[in-house]
Design a protein that fits this description.
The chain has 206 residues and is an alpha/beta fold. It has seven helices and five strands, in the order ββαβααββαααα. Helix 1 crosses helix 4 and helix 2 crosses helix 3. The model has no long low-confidence stretch (mean pLDDT 93).
Length: 206
């Protein structure tokens, strides 16, 4: 529970999109981003950073955000793109894909964190450290990105049940690392990440 609702926009009347990502630190799966434009009468007073919410509450909040948003979009960068470009560049790529999917396009971007390097967008932006706990549109993007990515990893777990993705979402938990040692890596593992390098655990790739 937060003390008071997060501000909907930093500048009233300006069409702002909040942007956030999820999955940068995972050993498996894509990195995902969401971009959201909220109306100024948006009403979800308990909205906060997705990491502070239970999975059930995140899913409920995601539905409320989708129902009220002016527009929202999800972007992804694949495991192959993460390994080819590096995780930071792939994260920016996922963010830009989410931004490009917005209709209408925003006048200003509010990016969670302290770095953003646009390649195709010329929309003015600012980065906000801990923005997902400071601005409602970034918190909304955090929730949508997390719910989307968690669902992708739950579906992937049906094919690869050994790795615990239904509850670790591809993060490097002790259980996940032990499964890599026992079973090797899958096509969804990030081979540029140390624990997933094929030479360590996957003899068929030697």
């Amino acid at each position: 529970m937060i003390d008071r609702p997060l501000p909907i926009r930093l500048v009233p009347g300006r069409l702002e999109a909040g942007v956030d990502e999820v999955g940068r630190g995972c050993l498996a799966g894509p990195v995902c981003a969401a971009a959201v434009i909220l109306p100024e009468d948006f009403d979800l007073p308990e909205l906060n950073d997705s990491k502070q919410l239970t999975p059930a509450r995140r899913r409920a909040f995601a539905q409320a955000i989708i129902a009220q948003a002016i527009t929202y979009s999800i972007g992804e960068a694949t495991v192959e793109e993460i390994d080819r470009y590096n995780i930071l560049s792939a994260t920016f790529l996922a963010m830009e894909r989410a931004i490009r999917g917005l209709t209408p396009q925003p006048e200003h971007l509010l990016i969670d964190g302290n770095r953003f390097k646009p390649h195709t967008t010329s929309i003015p932006y600012e980065t906000i450290i801990k923005g997902d706990s400071r601005v409602a549109s970034i918190a909304a993007a955090s929730v949508l990105a997390k719910v989307h990515r968690d669902h992708l990893m739950e579906v992937a777990a049906e094919t690869y049940p050994e790795y615990g993705w239904t509850h670790n979402a591809g993060y490097g938990t002790a259980e996940h690392r032990a499964a890599i040692r026992a079973h090797g890596i899958t096509p969804l593992h990030r081979r540029s990440f140390g624990p997933c390098r094929p030479s360590l655990f996957d003899p068929q790739d030697l």
